[in-house]
User: Fold this.
Amino acid sequence: MNNQIIILGSTGSIGSSTLKSINKNKKLKVKLLTTNKNVRKIYNQAIKYRVKHIIIEDKISYLKFRKKFLKKNIKVYLGINSLEKIIKKKVTYCINSISGIDGLYPTLKAIPLTKNILIANKESIVCGWHLILNRLKKYKTSFIPLDSEHFSIWNLIKNENINDVEKIVLTASGGPFLNLSNSKISNIHPKFALKHPNWKMGKKISIDSSTMMNKIFEFIEAKKIFNLKNKNLSILIHPSSYVHAIIFFKGKLIKFLAHETEMIIPISNAINIKERFKKNEIINNYNKLNNLKFFTPSTKKFPLLKILKLIPENTSYFETILITLNDELVTKYLSGTLNYSSIHKNLLNLIKKPYFNKYYKLKPHNIYDIKNMIKITKNYLELNIKYYD
Assistant:
């Protein structure tokens, strides 16, 4: 029998890349796709990949379009709680590419139903890794990270003793403003911040890449996934984004993993579908390897990197507060109600407020604690946000 895969958030960029990677592959059968309300795209996906089960989160979209699916003999369900109705036996893979903190609950729901869960959702890991880890252990489900950096680390250390790791380096492109002075970008229009030099990404993550907040989240992710101390992690600017992680081992060994800037590469390797690629272009790779450049980012250029020194060693509400503040500030910037420099200044100011400090020694016990802290943080932000020139 073919291995089965379910894709949560199939209409997003990671979900679409996953479907592209398994196109015409006979090893995997797509059991289920989900979307919030991008009905047109998921309908086309279901037809193309012969998927018989669809989940739609948005009730209005579900009620409006369910008959369209039924005409094609496709069963459509409302909400992620329908998972248990559809999945009666553990599937081989579950890809969770639902963006934002909304991806945490589906992650927890899916873990008992799959042998392997692959996650490309930063917020779920940053805010709720301890909840995810408990479920992974309880249901004996394997975890594979899909972000290129964390997949690279996972790939490099999966046969190594974690105690032999001295330092893990995450690489960052530096974003679209690497060579511009801060004075030139303080009031820059979002359309310029969205132009990532190497990757095709969504709006939110593109802004986070330009401010380096994306790399701070990845720092926290790596710390949690691989059970590391802050001192074991660092960040280097690597403009070409060809090397995704560097690991320094005891015994003076250094490993790194490199690949092109296409998410389909870590996805295909994670689900063990490698035959879809053409033969490696050796000469082209030689040229890139001969022109590797790395340098340490400065906090003057990327002020948000100061947050790295504030990250608690132990899990707390710090991560949820940080993500919520950033999400709200970026949303306001994208909508035109906040300028670019105000993202940095508000975030650095608010994350150190005594109002939040008391939560940095407390740990959320469940998803409801996390959601409550999101609400508290949003309310505080609205009352204390400042608009900087």
